[in-house]
Amino acid sequence: MSVTLYTNPMSRGRIARWMLEEVGTPYETVVLDYASGMKGEPFLAINPMGKVPAIVHDGHVVAECAAICAYLADVFPEAGLAPPLADRADYYRWLFFAAGPVEQAVTNRSLGVTTNEPQQQRMAGYGTFDLTIETFAKAITVNPYFGGDRFSAVDVYAGSQVIWGLQFGSIPANAVFEDYAARVKDRPAYRRASEIDDALIAAPVAEAVE
Prior knowledge:
By secondary structure, the protein is α+β, with helices and mostly antiparallel strands. It has helices at 13-23, 41-44, 65-75, 89-110, 118-124, 129-142, 153-168, 175-185, 188-202; strands spanning 3-7, 28-31, 54-57, 60-63, 208-209. The protein has 2 domains: 3-80 and 190-209, 3-Layer(aba) Sandwich (Glutaredoxin), CATH 3.40.30.10; 85-186, Glutathione S-transferase Yfyf (Class Pi), Chain A, domain 2, CATH 1.20.1050. 53% of the residues lie in helices and 9% in strands.
């Protein structure tokens, strides 16, 4: 089976690379620049949004980080990154909570958009930024990981949200988030993925294949 990752080291592509390193399957990397590579016809044929990451697995295209994490966990079950079907309630709940309410709330806040009125809060879906972040934190107060007692694919996606949020100040720092971030950053796959992308950032980023 062949896997190709289309990415840029200064993008959400870091999430997909972390997931691929967790899975442990060999993969090729195509690094695209923002100005031309992502907007060129070859990549637009893969993802018409012109955004990374995207993966191609045996001819099948998967974009969107949460989808990539869930897909790879399913097609490489030997990695043990998805709970048994009977135990996936929290796994699905927090994966899509991170991809929906958390992503929306954090993005809106960074754009200066606030939901002050009750009607706005209902329309936005996530309610308020504070409510969303408080709810997010509660999940890892009850359990050490978002899917329960064990690390899973949801922790690659939600964990990336927490790590980046703390790094850039888009998620308020607290002991719950900081302890969780330290836990997931200590994983060998996270360290490998970070080293690869950090090395790419240190070098000129041009279209290339590893």
